[in-house]
Design brief:
Length: about 425
């Protein structure tokens, strides 16, 4: 009989307990799709009819969401394309706990409505005592939009030409600010701006002076910018976009601004991202003078930019909980990274794979500290493995250098070393038997 006739029917396959369980976990549509594809493979003769159920089970996704967890072996700590900061286990647990009904806006003691996200806001306020008030929005771009709208719509924002920054993927801060209806008053030049340039531009129409941290580039040579401390007291609010979300100075990144120091220097408002060096979820932080934060918070636009309970839970756990994976990666010791790379390479080499440990250079990434390199260590592999590892399970993303694939371990938590070993070994097995042995 034609084996194509023997391909099991969909109903029969869906009665398989493994697939029936998957329907409860993943939903009917995804399971039917996996079943349909496995039937198709059998009709093409790629698998035998008896293998259809197994093939469908093997092809089922882990979750009904398309996002796949990836091992970040790029050596870029905050890789925007890989979702920036990985959350701590504490933050993940807080998200899971907040997923159902929570007291996000409810006082359990009185049964009355309460301030939304008050404990996350209290954690942020406690982390930066220099701020009179704090607020959270969706991301730093949202924080800037809210500040520009609430404090400068129809008026002017004074900004240095040296700080007209494009953050990435065509996202330009000046365009974002103009979209709010504020006018930009550009002062100074690309390389030098003086206090007098700001002072000359300030008038009755000024909403605020904005300083933007050049978080993804550096200009060198004949340069000059005006410090926050010099601008403080210029007569209008001074708003500083510090970018990376460091709340206090980080000795390893002396060039990176932090919220506490910037406020102490006299900034009236600071904006920052939650998912860069702060190591939390995507969020926008607004910290500073109480009257200005209140104007932002009470503006109608604030409602459109507000964060959900999952973000509030993750921000609070990031602030109150143990050191974040981003902090751990930043502070990993080069000697320990090299020892890990050697151990991974040794295991792979013992399986006949061309692997060895090499010193490497990691970076913070688009999230901050341009020009800073962090000494690191990598497992060097044949370059042709790059695509296979990227499309494997879990995907492992490294970087190519001189025809070799480097898996840099600085952004990889130590507990993922075994995943890397397994992924590379599985790939090498697929490529054929090892040459040696
Ligand atoms: C990253 C960055 C932004 C954008 O932050 P998002 O949280 O991604 O919206 C804005 N300004 C600066 C200086 C940045 O570094």
């Amino acid at each position: 009989m034609d084996p194509r006739r023997r391909v099991p029917r969909t109903d029969t396959l869906l009665a398989d307990p493994r697939l029936a369980g998957a329907v409860r976990r993943l939903g009917r549509a995804l399971v039917k799709q996996a079943v349909g594809e496995a039937q198709e493979r059998a009709r093409r003769g790629e698998i035998r009819p008896e293998q259809v159920a197994d093939a469908a089970v093997a092809a089922l996704p882990e979750h009904p969401a398309g996002l796949r967890p990836v091992v970040n072996a790029t050596g870029v700590l905050l890789h925007t394309n890989l979702g920036r900061a990985p959350l701590s286990a504490a933050a993940v647990a807080a998200i899971a706990a907040a997923a159902g009904p929570t007291d996000v806006e409810f006082d359990l003691a009185t049964g009355a409505r309460a301030r939304r996200g008050r404990s996350a806001l209290a954690a942020l306020a406690a982390a930066v005592p220099q701020a009179e008030a704090v607020h959270l929005v969706n991301n730093n771009a949202a924080a800037l939009v809210l500040v520009a709208t609430a404090l400068a719509a129809g008026r002017e924002i004074v900004l240095s030409r040296g700080e007209m920054v494009e953050i990435g993927d065509g996202f330009r801060i000046p365009e974002l600010l103009r979209s709010t209806g504020a006018r930009l008053r550009e002062v100074g030049t690309t390389n030098r701006t003086r206090l007098a340039d700001y002072a000359d531009a300030i008038g009755p129409d000024t909403g605020f002076v904005l300083k933007v941290h050049p978080s993804n580039f550096r200009i060198e040579g004949f340069t000059g910018a005006v410090d926050v401390a010099e601008l403080a007291g210029i007569g209008v609010p001074v708003v500083v976009d510090i970018g990376s979300g460091l709340l206090a100075p980080e000795p390893l990144l002396p060039g990176e601004p932090d919220a506490a120091t910037t406020l102490r220097a006299g900034a009236d408002l600071v904006t920052a991202s939650g998912d860069k060096l702060l190591g939390g979820p995507q969020a926008g932080l607004l910290l500073g003078r109480r009257d200005l934060v209140e104007r932002c918070r009470r503006h109608p636009l604030a409602r459109a930019l507000r964060v959900d309970k999952l973000t509030l839970a993750a921000v609070e756990a990031t602030l109150r909980g143990p050191a974040t994976p981003t902090f751990e990666a930043l502070h990993a010791r080069p000697g320990e990274l090299l020892a890990r790379a050697r151990a991974v390479a040794r295991t792979l080499a013992a399986a006949g794979i061309d692997a060895h440990a090499v010193p490497s250079q990691a970076t913070v990434g688009g999230g901050g500290a341009p020009g800073v390199t962090l000494p690191s260590a990598a497992v060097s592999l044949p370059g042709h493995l790059a695509a296979a590892l990227r499309t494997g399970t879990p995907p492992v993303v490294g970087r190519l250098a001189d025809g070799r694939l480097l898996l840099d371990l600085r952004a990889v938590p130590p507990e993922q070393d075994d995943l890397i070993v397994a992924a590379v070994a599985a790939q090498a097995r697929r490529d054929g038997p090892p040459v040696a042995g």
